[in-house]
Specification:
Helix Hairpins, RND_pump_MFP, 4-stranded antiparallel β-sheet, alpha+beta, rod-shaped, signal, 3 domains, Elongation Factor Tu (Ef-tu), domain 3, conserved putative lor/sdh protein from methanococcus maripaludis s2 fold, 508 residues, Beta-barrel_RND_2
Length: 508
Protein backbone atom coordinates (compact mmCIF):
# COMPACT_ATOMS: atom_id res chain seq x y z
CA UNK A 1 0.00 0.00 0.00
CA UNK A 2 2.88 2.36 0.78
CA UNK A 3 4.34 1.69 -2.63
CA UNK A 4 1.02 2.47 -4.34
CA UNK A 5 0.88 5.72 -2.38
CA UNK A 6 4.32 6.59 -3.71
CA UNK A 7 3.12 5.79 -7.21
CA UNK A 8 0.13 8.09 -6.79
CA UNK A 9 2.41 10.97 -5.67
CA UNK A 10 4.66 10.47 -8.68
CA UNK A 11 1.70 10.43 -11.02
CA UNK A 12 0.31 13.65 -9.55
CA UNK A 13 3.74 15.26 -9.81
CA UNK A 14 3.90 14.26 -13.43
CA UNK A 15 0.49 15.79 -14.15
CA UNK A 16 1.45 19.08 -12.47
CA UNK A 17 4.70 19.34 -14.39
CA UNK A 18 2.91 18.54 -17.62
CA UNK A 19 0.37 21.27 -17.00
CA UNK A 20 3.08 23.84 -16.23
CA UNK A 21 4.93 22.97 -19.38
CA UNK A 22 1.78 23.29 -21.44
CA UNK A 23 1.11 26.76 -20.05
CA UNK A 24 4.64 27.95 -20.86
CA UNK A 25 4.48 26.78 -24.44
CA UNK A 26 0.86 27.50 -25.29
CA UNK A 27 0.41 29.59 -28.40
CA UNK A 28 4.11 29.47 -29.15
CA UNK A 29 5.42 27.30 -31.91
CA UNK A 30 8.87 26.25 -30.70
CA UNK A 31 11.29 23.64 -31.81
CA UNK A 32 11.20 20.59 -29.56
CA UNK A 33 14.40 19.83 -27.66
CA UNK A 34 15.38 16.19 -27.02
CA UNK A 35 14.82 15.22 -23.40
CA UNK A 36 17.54 13.39 -21.52
CA UNK A 37 16.12 10.14 -20.11
CA UNK A 38 17.24 6.68 -18.94
CA UNK A 39 15.81 3.67 -20.73
CA UNK A 40 16.03 -0.06 -20.12
CA UNK A 41 15.17 -3.17 -22.06
CA UNK A 42 12.41 -5.15 -20.37
CA UNK A 43 12.73 -8.88 -19.90
CA UNK A 44 10.91 -11.78 -18.28
CA UNK A 45 11.59 -12.17 -14.55
CA UNK A 46 10.29 -14.47 -11.87
CA UNK A 47 6.96 -13.34 -10.55
CA UNK A 48 7.51 -15.39 -7.38
CA UNK A 49 10.81 -13.84 -6.45
CA UNK A 50 10.84 -12.79 -2.83
CA UNK A 51 13.75 -10.54 -2.11
CA UNK A 52 14.62 -7.62 0.07
CA UNK A 53 14.23 -9.90 3.11
CA UNK A 54 16.91 -8.76 5.47
CA UNK A 55 18.39 -10.32 8.55
CA UNK A 56 21.42 -10.27 10.79
CA UNK A 57 23.99 -13.04 10.62
CA UNK A 58 24.26 -15.18 13.75
CA UNK A 59 26.68 -17.95 14.74
CA UNK A 60 25.32 -21.39 13.89
CA UNK A 61 25.94 -22.31 17.53
CA UNK A 62 26.57 -19.94 20.39
CA UNK A 63 27.23 -20.56 24.05
CA UNK A 64 28.58 -18.91 27.15
CA UNK A 65 31.07 -20.99 29.15
CA UNK A 66 31.43 -20.71 32.91
CA UNK A 67 33.31 -22.30 35.77
CA UNK A 68 31.18 -24.66 37.84
CA UNK A 69 33.05 -23.59 40.97
CA UNK A 70 34.08 -20.23 42.33
CA UNK A 71 37.52 -18.77 42.96
CA UNK A 72 40.19 -16.42 41.70
CA UNK A 73 41.04 -16.66 38.00
CA UNK A 74 44.65 -17.78 37.66
CA UNK A 75 44.94 -17.85 33.87
CA UNK A 76 43.04 -16.83 30.73
CA UNK A 77 44.30 -18.68 27.63
CA UNK A 78 42.07 -17.30 24.87
CA UNK A 79 41.42 -13.88 23.37
CA UNK A 80 38.56 -12.48 21.33
CA UNK A 81 38.72 -13.79 17.77
CA UNK A 82 40.83 -16.86 18.60
CA UNK A 83 39.88 -20.04 16.79
CA UNK A 84 39.46 -22.87 19.29
CA UNK A 85 38.67 -26.57 19.21
CA UNK A 86 36.26 -28.47 21.41
CA UNK A 87 38.01 -29.44 24.65
CA UNK A 88 40.66 -26.74 24.35
CA UNK A 89 41.86 -25.19 27.64
CA UNK A 90 40.41 -21.70 28.04
CA UNK A 91 41.47 -20.80 31.57
CA UNK A 92 41.95 -21.98 35.13
CA UNK A 93 41.18 -20.96 38.71
CA UNK A 94 43.67 -20.94 41.58
CA UNK A 95 43.49 -24.64 42.60
CA UNK A 96 45.15 -24.41 46.05
CA UNK A 97 42.01 -24.75 48.18
CA UNK A 98 40.54 -27.49 46.00
CA UNK A 99 43.83 -29.40 45.99
CA UNK A 100 43.84 -29.22 49.80
CA UNK A 101 40.37 -30.76 49.85
CA UNK A 102 41.68 -33.66 47.74
CA UNK A 103 44.55 -34.21 50.19
CA UNK A 104 42.14 -34.14 53.15
CA UNK A 105 39.95 -36.70 51.39
CA UNK A 106 42.98 -38.92 50.69
CA UNK A 107 43.95 -38.75 54.38
CA UNK A 108 40.40 -39.72 55.36
CA UNK A 109 40.68 -42.76 53.07
CA UNK A 110 43.95 -43.80 54.74
CA UNK A 111 42.43 -43.45 58.22
CA UNK A 112 39.29 -45.38 57.34
CA UNK A 113 41.41 -48.04 55.61
CA UNK A 114 43.51 -48.43 58.76
CA UNK A 115 40.34 -48.76 60.86
CA UNK A 116 39.05 -51.35 58.41
CA UNK A 117 42.27 -53.35 58.68
CA UNK A 118 42.13 -53.10 62.47
CA UNK A 119 38.57 -54.45 62.40
CA UNK A 120 39.69 -57.35 60.21
CA UNK A 121 42.50 -58.14 62.67
CA UNK A 122 40.05 -58.03 65.57
CA UNK A 123 37.68 -60.37 63.73
CA UNK A 124 40.53 -62.79 63.00
CA UNK A 125 41.65 -62.64 66.64
CA UNK A 126 38.09 -63.31 67.83
CA UNK A 127 37.78 -66.25 65.45
CA UNK A 128 41.05 -67.67 66.81
CA UNK A 129 39.60 -67.23 70.32
CA UNK A 130 36.44 -69.04 69.27
CA UNK A 131 38.43 -71.93 67.79
CA UNK A 132 40.60 -72.10 70.92
CA UNK A 133 37.53 -72.08 73.18
CA UNK A 134 35.92 -74.80 71.07
CA UNK A 135 39.09 -76.86 71.45
CA UNK A 136 39.02 -76.22 75.22
CA UNK A 137 35.38 -77.29 75.42
CA UNK A 138 36.14 -80.47 73.46
CA UNK A 139 39.17 -81.19 75.67
CA UNK A 140 37.10 -80.63 78.82
CA UNK A 141 34.41 -82.97 77.50
CA UNK A 142 37.07 -85.64 76.93
CA UNK A 143 38.51 -85.06 80.41
CA UNK A 144 35.05 -85.34 81.97
CA UNK A 145 34.42 -88.52 79.99
CA UNK A 146 37.79 -89.96 81.08
CA UNK A 147 37.22 -88.98 84.73
CA UNK A 148 33.79 -90.61 84.74
CA UNK A 149 35.33 -93.76 83.27
CA UNK A 150 37.96 -93.67 86.04
CA UNK A 151 35.17 -93.34 88.61
CA UNK A 152 33.49 -96.45 87.23
CA UNK A 153 36.81 -98.33 87.19
CA UNK A 154 37.64 -97.39 90.79
CA UNK A 155 34.12 -98.29 91.85
CA UNK A 156 34.61 -101.71 90.27
CA UNK A 157 37.94 -102.10 92.08
CA UNK A 158 36.33 -101.09 95.37
CA UNK A 159 33.53 -103.60 94.83
CA UNK A 160 36.04 -106.33 93.98
CA UNK A 161 38.21 -105.55 97.03
CA UNK A 162 35.20 -105.41 99.30
CA UNK A 163 34.09 -108.78 97.92
CA UNK A 164 37.56 -110.20 98.64
CA UNK A 165 37.47 -108.78 102.16
CA UNK A 166 34.05 -110.27 102.70
CA UNK A 167 35.30 -113.62 101.46
CA UNK A 168 38.29 -113.43 103.82
CA UNK A 169 36.01 -112.55 106.70
CA UNK A 170 33.68 -115.50 105.96
CA UNK A 171 36.48 -118.07 105.47
CA UNK A 172 36.36 -121.23 103.28
CA UNK A 173 33.23 -123.26 102.89
CA UNK A 174 33.08 -127.03 103.84
CA UNK A 175 32.99 -127.95 100.21
CA UNK A 176 36.18 -125.93 99.63
CA UNK A 177 37.84 -127.62 102.61
CA UNK A 178 36.85 -131.08 101.29
CA UNK A 179 38.18 -130.22 97.85
CA UNK A 180 41.44 -128.98 99.40
CA UNK A 181 41.78 -132.25 101.43
CA UNK A 182 41.13 -134.30 98.31
CA UNK A 183 43.79 -132.27 96.48
CA UNK A 184 46.28 -133.18 99.26
CA UNK A 185 45.38 -136.86 99.03
CA UNK A 186 45.68 -136.88 95.26
CA UNK A 187 49.04 -135.12 95.44
CA UNK A 188 50.32 -137.69 98.06
CA UNK A 189 49.01 -140.63 96.00
CA UNK A 190 50.73 -139.30 92.91
CA UNK A 191 53.91 -138.79 94.88
CA UNK A 192 53.79 -142.40 96.24
CA UNK A 193 53.31 -143.80 92.73
CA UNK A 194 56.12 -141.66 91.28
CA UNK A 195 58.34 -142.67 94.23
CA UNK A 196 57.76 -146.38 93.50
CA UNK A 197 58.49 -145.85 89.79
CA UNK A 198 61.63 -143.92 90.71
CA UNK A 199 62.97 -146.78 92.86
CA UNK A 200 62.24 -149.26 90.05
CA UNK A 201 63.94 -147.06 87.39
CA UNK A 202 66.87 -146.46 89.75
CA UNK A 203 67.36 -150.24 90.12
CA UNK A 204 67.21 -150.69 86.38
CA UNK A 205 69.60 -147.81 85.88
CA UNK A 206 72.04 -149.33 88.37
CA UNK A 207 71.82 -152.60 86.48
CA UNK A 208 72.32 -150.72 83.20
CA UNK A 209 68.82 -151.50 81.96
CA UNK A 210 67.63 -147.88 81.95
CA UNK A 211 69.13 -144.80 80.35
CA UNK A 212 70.48 -141.81 82.14
CA UNK A 213 67.67 -139.68 80.62
CA UNK A 214 65.00 -142.01 81.91
CA UNK A 215 66.63 -141.90 85.38
CA UNK A 216 66.79 -138.03 85.30
CA UNK A 217 63.20 -137.70 84.05
CA UNK A 218 61.84 -139.88 86.84
CA UNK A 219 63.81 -137.96 89.44
CA UNK A 220 62.30 -134.69 88.07
CA UNK A 221 58.80 -136.19 88.32
CA UNK A 222 59.47 -137.15 91.92
CA UNK A 223 60.59 -133.62 92.74
CA UNK A 224 57.50 -132.07 91.07
CA UNK A 225 55.16 -134.51 92.77
CA UNK A 226 56.72 -133.66 96.16
CA UNK A 227 56.17 -129.92 95.46
CA UNK A 228 52.56 -130.58 94.46
CA UNK A 229 52.05 -132.32 97.80
CA UNK A 230 53.57 -129.36 99.65
CA UNK A 231 51.41 -126.83 97.72
CA UNK A 232 48.27 -128.83 98.27
CA UNK A 233 49.01 -129.19 101.98
CA UNK A 234 49.72 -125.42 102.20
CA UNK A 235 46.46 -124.53 100.45
CA UNK A 236 44.62 -126.92 102.65
CA UNK A 237 46.26 -125.38 105.70
CA UNK A 238 45.28 -121.85 104.56
CA UNK A 239 41.70 -122.88 104.00
CA UNK A 240 41.60 -124.58 107.40
CA UNK A 241 43.32 -121.72 109.21
CA UNK A 242 41.42 -118.78 107.32
CA UNK A 243 42.75 -115.31 106.20
CA UNK A 244 45.71 -113.75 107.97
CA UNK A 245 45.79 -110.19 109.31
CA UNK A 246 48.28 -109.32 106.66
CA UNK A 247 45.90 -110.39 103.91
CA UNK A 248 43.11 -108.31 105.45
CA UNK A 249 45.40 -105.28 105.60
CA UNK A 250 46.34 -105.76 101.96
CA UNK A 251 42.67 -105.94 100.91
CA UNK A 252 41.76 -102.88 103.04
CA UNK A 253 44.66 -100.98 101.55
CA UNK A 254 43.41 -101.89 98.09
CA UNK A 255 39.92 -100.60 99.01
CA UNK A 256 41.34 -97.34 100.35
CA UNK A 257 43.49 -96.93 97.26
CA UNK A 258 40.46 -97.48 95.02
CA UNK A 259 38.37 -95.01 97.01
CA UNK A 260 41.15 -92.43 96.77
CA UNK A 261 41.22 -93.02 93.02
CA UNK A 262 37.47 -92.53 92.89
CA UNK A 263 37.71 -89.24 94.79
CA UNK A 264 40.51 -88.15 92.51
CA UNK A 265 38.41 -89.06 89.46
CA UNK A 266 35.42 -87.18 90.89
CA UNK A 267 37.66 -84.16 91.48
CA UNK A 268 38.81 -84.52 87.87
CA UNK A 269 35.17 -84.37 86.73
CA UNK A 270 34.70 -81.18 88.72
CA UNK A 271 37.89 -79.64 87.41
CA UNK A 272 37.06 -80.61 83.82
CA UNK A 273 33.52 -79.24 84.22
CA UNK A 274 34.94 -75.99 85.57
CA UNK A 275 37.41 -75.86 82.68
CA UNK A 276 34.55 -76.47 80.26
CA UNK A 277 32.56 -73.65 81.86
CA UNK A 278 35.56 -71.34 81.49
CA UNK A 279 35.98 -72.44 77.86
CA UNK A 280 32.27 -71.84 77.18
CA UNK A 281 32.54 -68.39 78.79
CA UNK A 282 35.66 -67.67 76.74
CA UNK A 283 33.85 -68.76 73.59
CA UNK A 284 30.85 -66.54 74.38
CA UNK A 285 33.23 -63.66 74.99
CA UNK A 286 35.07 -64.37 71.72
CA UNK A 287 31.74 -64.56 69.84
CA UNK A 288 30.66 -61.24 71.36
CA UNK A 289 34.03 -59.77 70.48
CA UNK A 290 33.67 -61.00 66.90
CA UNK A 291 30.18 -59.51 66.65
CA UNK A 292 31.50 -56.19 67.94
CA UNK A 293 34.41 -56.38 65.50
CA UNK A 294 32.04 -57.18 62.61
CA UNK A 295 29.89 -54.20 63.56
CA UNK A 296 33.02 -52.05 63.81
CA UNK A 297 34.11 -53.34 60.42
CA UNK A 298 30.73 -52.36 58.97
CA UNK A 299 31.16 -48.85 60.34
CA UNK A 300 34.75 -48.73 59.07
CA UNK A 301 33.63 -49.99 55.65
CA UNK A 302 30.93 -47.32 55.49
CA UNK A 303 33.46 -44.69 56.56
CA UNK A 304 35.90 -45.94 53.92
CA UNK A 305 33.30 -45.86 51.17
CA UNK A 306 32.24 -42.38 52.26
CA UNK A 307 35.88 -41.29 52.22
CA UNK A 308 36.28 -42.68 48.69
CA UNK A 309 33.17 -40.78 47.58
CA UNK A 310 34.53 -37.68 49.29
CA UNK A 311 37.79 -38.02 47.40
CA UNK A 312 35.97 -38.49 44.09
CA UNK A 313 33.90 -35.41 44.78
CA UNK A 314 37.01 -33.45 45.77
CA UNK A 315 38.81 -34.59 42.61
CA UNK A 316 35.77 -33.73 40.50
CA UNK A 317 35.60 -30.28 42.08
CA UNK A 318 39.36 -29.88 41.57
CA UNK A 319 38.97 -30.77 37.88
CA UNK A 320 36.37 -28.03 37.55
CA UNK A 321 39.02 -25.40 38.27
CA UNK A 322 39.98 -25.82 34.59
CA UNK A 323 37.72 -24.35 31.90
CA UNK A 324 37.50 -26.03 28.49
CA UNK A 325 35.66 -25.24 25.27
CA UNK A 326 32.40 -27.05 24.64
CA UNK A 327 32.55 -26.52 20.85
CA UNK A 328 34.84 -25.85 17.91
CA UNK A 329 34.56 -22.22 16.84
CA UNK A 330 35.84 -18.78 17.76
CA UNK A 331 35.90 -16.63 20.87
CA UNK A 332 33.20 -14.00 20.39
CA UNK A 333 33.71 -12.21 23.68
CA UNK A 334 35.88 -12.31 26.81
CA UNK A 335 33.84 -11.29 29.82
CA UNK A 336 36.31 -11.37 32.77
CA UNK A 337 39.97 -10.71 33.46
CA UNK A 338 42.83 -12.64 35.04
CA UNK A 339 42.93 -12.30 38.83
CA UNK A 340 39.22 -11.56 39.09
CA UNK A 341 37.20 -13.35 41.78
CA UNK A 342 34.23 -15.14 40.24
CA UNK A 343 31.27 -17.18 41.45
CA UNK A 344 30.04 -20.48 40.00
CA UNK A 345 28.15 -19.86 36.77
CA UNK A 346 29.58 -16.39 36.09
CA UNK A 347 29.99 -15.92 32.28
CA UNK A 348 33.68 -16.19 31.29
CA UNK A 349 33.76 -16.50 27.50
CA UNK A 350 31.18 -16.23 24.75
CA UNK A 351 31.92 -18.84 22.07
CA UNK A 352 30.38 -19.36 18.67
CA UNK A 353 30.61 -21.72 15.74
CA UNK A 354 30.91 -19.59 12.59
CA UNK A 355 32.08 -22.09 9.98
CA UNK A 356 28.35 -22.02 9.40
CA UNK A 357 26.16 -18.99 10.01
CA UNK A 358 22.44 -18.60 10.25
CA UNK A 359 19.99 -15.79 9.61
CA UNK A 360 16.38 -15.50 10.76
CA UNK A 361 14.15 -14.18 7.94
CA UNK A 362 10.82 -12.56 8.88
CA UNK A 363 8.26 -14.14 6.53
CA UNK A 364 4.69 -12.78 6.45
CA UNK A 365 2.41 -15.42 7.88
CA UNK A 366 0.31 -15.46 4.70
CA UNK A 367 3.37 -16.56 2.68
CA UNK A 368 4.79 -19.12 5.13
CA UNK A 369 3.15 -22.08 3.34
CA UNK A 370 5.43 -21.42 0.38
CA UNK A 371 8.50 -22.13 2.51
CA UNK A 372 9.83 -25.60 3.23
CA UNK A 373 12.83 -27.04 5.04
CA UNK A 374 15.76 -27.65 2.64
CA UNK A 375 14.61 -24.84 0.27
CA UNK A 376 17.61 -23.03 -1.17
CA UNK A 377 17.94 -19.33 -0.46
CA UNK A 378 20.30 -16.86 -2.14
CA UNK A 379 21.94 -14.68 0.52
CA UNK A 380 23.73 -11.48 -0.46
CA UNK A 381 26.29 -9.46 1.51
CA UNK A 382 27.47 -6.43 -0.47
CA UNK A 383 28.44 -7.97 -3.83
CA UNK A 384 29.03 -11.52 -2.53
CA UNK A 385 26.31 -14.13 -2.86
CA UNK A 386 26.06 -17.50 -1.08
CA UNK A 387 23.47 -20.22 -1.22
CA UNK A 388 21.93 -21.23 2.07
CA UNK A 389 19.26 -23.74 3.03
CA UNK A 390 16.18 -23.47 5.16
CA UNK A 391 17.00 -25.36 8.36
CA UNK A 392 13.99 -24.60 10.52
CA UNK A 393 10.59 -22.92 10.30
CA UNK A 394 9.49 -21.58 13.65
CA UNK A 395 6.11 -22.83 14.88
CA UNK A 396 4.58 -19.52 15.96
CA UNK A 397 4.02 -15.98 14.74
CA UNK A 398 5.98 -13.05 16.16
CA UNK A 399 3.41 -11.04 18.09
CA UNK A 400 4.92 -7.64 17.25
CA UNK A 401 5.41 -8.08 13.50
CA UNK A 402 2.93 -10.72 12.40
CA UNK A 403 5.77 -12.63 10.73
CA UNK A 404 7.12 -16.12 11.19
CA UNK A 405 10.87 -16.64 11.51
CA UNK A 406 12.58 -18.94 9.03
CA UNK A 407 16.12 -20.07 9.94
CA UNK A 408 18.50 -20.25 6.98
CA UNK A 409 21.92 -21.88 7.40
CA UNK A 410 24.77 -20.44 5.30
CA UNK A 411 28.17 -22.14 4.71
CA UNK A 412 31.13 -20.04 5.88
CA UNK A 413 34.16 -22.34 5.79
CA UNK A 414 36.58 -19.50 5.02
CA UNK A 415 35.11 -17.35 7.82
CA UNK A 416 34.80 -14.41 5.41
CA UNK A 417 31.42 -13.43 6.84
CA UNK A 418 31.06 -12.61 10.52
CA UNK A 419 28.14 -12.50 12.96
CA UNK A 420 26.37 -9.16 13.16
CA UNK A 421 26.49 -8.32 9.45
CA UNK A 422 23.17 -7.56 7.74
CA UNK A 423 22.36 -9.59 4.63
CA UNK A 424 19.61 -9.73 2.05
CA UNK A 425 17.91 -12.97 1.10
CA UNK A 426 16.21 -14.01 -2.12
CA UNK A 427 14.25 -17.19 -2.72
CA UNK A 428 12.61 -18.37 -5.98
CA UNK A 429 9.78 -20.80 -5.49
CA UNK A 430 8.67 -21.52 -9.11
CA UNK A 431 9.25 -20.77 -12.78
CA UNK A 432 6.28 -18.39 -13.08
CA UNK A 433 7.79 -15.53 -15.15
CA UNK A 434 6.52 -12.20 -16.47
CA UNK A 435 7.60 -8.66 -17.35
CA UNK A 436 8.52 -6.47 -14.41
CA UNK A 437 9.41 -2.78 -14.70
CA UNK A 438 10.54 -0.33 -12.01
CA UNK A 439 7.70 1.48 -10.28
CA UNK A 440 9.07 4.82 -11.56
CA UNK A 441 8.45 3.75 -15.17
CA UNK A 442 4.66 3.45 -14.72
CA UNK A 443 2.56 6.63 -14.81
CA UNK A 444 -1.16 7.21 -14.72
CA UNK A 445 -3.62 9.50 -16.46
CA UNK A 446 -6.76 9.06 -14.50
CA UNK A 447 -7.34 5.35 -14.07
CA UNK A 448 -5.28 4.32 -17.07
CA UNK A 449 -1.64 3.47 -16.39
CA UNK A 450 0.93 3.87 -19.17
CA UNK A 451 4.64 3.86 -19.86
CA UNK A 452 6.83 5.57 -22.44
CA UNK A 453 8.65 3.33 -24.84
CA UNK A 454 11.66 4.60 -26.76
CA UNK A 455 11.10 3.92 -30.44
CA UNK A 456 13.60 5.32 -32.99
CA UNK A 457 14.63 8.10 -30.60
CA UNK A 458 11.14 9.24 -29.73
CA UNK A 459 8.79 8.71 -26.80
CA UNK A 460 5.79 6.52 -27.49
CA UNK A 461 3.07 6.56 -24.88
CA UNK A 462 1.89 3.01 -24.32
CA UNK A 463 -1.03 1.90 -22.22
CA UNK A 464 -0.37 -1.07 -20.02
CA UNK A 465 -2.29 -3.40 -17.70
CA UNK A 466 -0.58 -3.79 -14.37
CA UNK A 467 -0.55 -6.59 -11.84
CA UNK A 468 1.12 -7.08 -8.49
CA UNK A 469 3.88 -5.01 -6.98
CA UNK A 470 6.92 -7.29 -6.49
CA UNK A 471 10.14 -6.08 -4.96
CA UNK A 472 9.60 -2.45 -5.92
CA UNK A 473 8.66 -3.48 -9.44
CA UNK A 474 5.26 -3.67 -11.15
CA UNK A 475 4.13 -6.69 -13.07
CA UNK A 476 3.03 -5.63 -16.61
CA UNK A 477 0.26 -8.03 -17.53
CA UNK A 478 -0.16 -6.60 -21.07
CA UNK A 479 1.08 -3.74 -23.23
CA UNK A 480 4.78 -4.63 -23.31
CA UNK A 481 6.82 -7.48 -24.68
CA UNK A 482 10.28 -8.71 -23.89
CA UNK A 483 12.94 -6.50 -25.51
CA UNK A 484 10.92 -3.23 -25.50
CA UNK A 485 12.91 -0.15 -24.49
CA UNK A 486 11.10 1.64 -21.65
CA UNK A 487 11.90 4.99 -20.02
CA UNK A 488 12.66 4.21 -16.39
CA UNK A 489 13.86 7.66 -15.35
CA UNK A 490 12.92 11.14 -16.64
CA UNK A 491 9.55 10.03 -18.00
CA UNK A 492 7.69 12.65 -15.93
CA UNK A 493 9.03 15.36 -18.31
CA UNK A 494 8.17 13.52 -21.48
CA UNK A 495 5.07 13.71 -23.69
CA UNK A 496 4.04 11.39 -26.41
CA UNK A 497 6.25 11.95 -29.50
CA UNK A 498 8.99 13.95 -27.72
CA UNK A 499 12.52 13.35 -29.01
CA UNK A 500 14.69 11.56 -26.52
CA UNK A 501 18.32 11.74 -25.62
CA UNK A 502 19.67 8.64 -23.96
CA UNK A 503 23.40 9.44 -24.04
CA UNK A 504 23.48 10.35 -20.38
CA UNK A 505 21.07 7.64 -19.41
CA UNK A 506 21.14 3.90 -19.42
CA UNK A 507 20.08 2.18 -22.56
CA UNK A 508 20.02 -1.59 -22.72
Amino acid sequence: MKRWSLLTILVCFTLVMTACTAQKTSGVEAEKIAINVEVASVSNESLDAISSLTGTLLPYEETVVSFEVGGRIQSMNASIGDTIKSGAALGALDPANYKLQVEIAENAILQSKAALNSSDSAINSAEVGIHSADAGIASSDESIKSAKANIKATEARINSAQASLSALDKGAREQEKTQAKLAVDRAKSAYTKVKVDSERIEGLYNEGLATKKEFDDIQLQVSNAQKDVENAEQSYSLIIEGATEEQRKQVLASIQEAEAGKEQAQAGVGQSSAAKGQAVAARDQAVASKEQSVAAKGQSQAAYEQAVIGKEQAELTFSKTKLTSSLTGVVLDKLVSKGQQINPGDPIYKLGRIDQLKVLLPIPDKDIKQWKVEDEVSVTLYDQVKTGKVNKIYPQTNAGTGTISVEVVIPNEQLEWVPGQVVKANRVTSDNNGILVPIEAVMSSGDTPYVFKEVKGKAVKTKVETGSLINNKIHIVSGLKEGDQVIIRGGELVRDGDPLKTDGGKKQ
